[in-house]
Amino acid sequence: MKPKESSVAIIVALISLCGVLGAAIINNWDKLFPPPPTTYAPPTDAPSTENPPQNEMNEPTSTCSGAEAGGYCWYFGGENQSCSDVCSSHEGYNEATRTYAGSDGSAGNCKKVITALTIVQDDFFETTQGGLGCFAIQTTSGNFYGYWDEQPTTADATSLTPGRRRICACQE
Questions:
Q1: CA-wise closest residue to 114 among 101, 105, 104
Q2: 87 plus 14 within the same structural domain
Q3: H, E, C per residue of 45-87
Q4: Among 1, 103, 166, 171, which residue's Cβ finds the most Cβ atoms within 10 Å?
Q5: pLDDT category, 119, cuts 50, 70, 90?
Q6: Which of 129, 137, 138, 124 lies closest to 158, judged by CA?
Q7: Whole domain around residue 14: which residue ranges?
Q8: How far is CA 34 from CA 30, 51, 100, 141, in A?
Q9: Is residue 40 part of a domain?
Q10: Would you say residue 39 has pLDDT above 60?
Q11: 136-162 pLDDT, tens per residue?
Q12: Is residue 150 part of a domain?
């Protein structure tokens, strides 16, 4: 072999060697440079060993045993029961009965409360029934008609017509 031909052969061999070594490094990268060990957080139900800083406020816990909608606690009253009666065992009447879902609120808010209480509706109507606010009447299907009363909503309103059930905001 001539000197020029031998140097070309050496260069080709070196390039091949570099290719083989490069491929080997790429295929074994995870073995040469393993990822850092994963740390696991303790389970969320484990009691905390740290006290929160004094300046941090804990989230308030809800005492509502009814349904929450619009930031208020709602209950589905019994037949022809006033909201004063419904709320007597829930720390009293809340004006949101009138201001959110009643005459000073909106039919849309009344629908939101009915949905939050999981009352199954066949239909929804706007009406003038004498200050009942948001209420429902059971149908023959077992579901309810939802109603929003435009008349000024009061805590003590009831109806002599059978089947009316008021939807009331209470303090708790």
A1: 101
A2: no
A3: CCCCCCCCCCCCCCCCCCCCCCEEECCEEEEEEEECCCHHHHH
A4: 166
A5: very high
A6: 129
A7: 3-32
A8: 5, 36, 59, 66
A9: no
A10: no
A11: 999 988 999 999 999 999 999 988 878
A12: yes
Which residue type does 18 have? C
81 in a domain, yes or no? Answer: yes
Work out the mean pLDDT of the chain and round it to a whole number. 85
Residue corresponding to tokens 């008609």: 145
Please give the pLDDT value at position 133. Answer: 94
Show the tokens assigned to 99: 């201001």
Number of domains in the chain: 2
Tell me whether residue 160 is in a domain. yes
* Secondary structure E strands in the chain: 67-69, 72-79, 121-127, 134-138, 144-149, 164-170
Query: Which residues, other chains included, contact 104 with Cβ-Cβ below 8 Å and sequence gap of 6+?
Result: 98, 153
Instruction: Say if residue 92 is in the same domain as residue 21.
Output: no
Pair 78, 152 in one domain: yes
